[in-house]
DNA sequence: AATTTGACTTACT
DNA sequence: TAGTAAGCCAAAT
């Protein structure tokens, strides 16, 4: 299934309402909307192509949370919960700095993952960030 | 229950 | 041009 901004916005519409789960044997705190909020963020992040990067703000905008870039970081900080893995290493701040590197298994993992994809990193910053920047659409 | 704290960004001194 | 404030909102304390 191809997920685009429209799809994400539809998902976000469900954000405020409580979602009833059929399965009751999962008392996980997934109280309600986070699941869909996470999904929305993850859906966007998964679209980032290999070797490209995007920013928290861009993801936030694509999910409709225009000014809530922080929420994106928060969602990614718990992305271990996501079933299909999320290429969180492709999300950096607007300066191209790997501000989230400390949240990976090792502080250098994020950079290593990026370099594996051909993205050069210097001083915790993506080289040629402007060219590698990918805007969610 | 209230306050602080972020994997951020923009706007205004 | 650099520093501060404000906006976001769920978690953690």
Q: Tags for this entry?
A:
DNA-binding, two-stranded parallel sheet, 137 residues, 6% strand, mainly alpha, single chain, two-stranded antiparallel sheet
Largest sheet: 2 strands, parallel
Spatial order of the strands in the main sheet?
Answer: 1-2
Tally the helices: what do you get?
6
Based on secondary structure, the structural category is mainly alpha
What is the N-to-C order of secondary-structure elements (H for helix, E for strand)?
HHEHHEHEEH
What's the total count of β strands?
A: 4
Shape category: globular
The stretches of 5 or more residues where confidence is low (pLDDT under 50) are: 9-34
Question: What fraction, in percent, of the residue positions are helical?
Answer: 25-40%
Straight-line N-to-C gap = 15 Å
Q: In percent terms, what proportion of residues is strand?
A: 5-15%
Query: Please, what is the average pLDDT?
Result: 79
- The Cα radius of gyration reads 15 Å
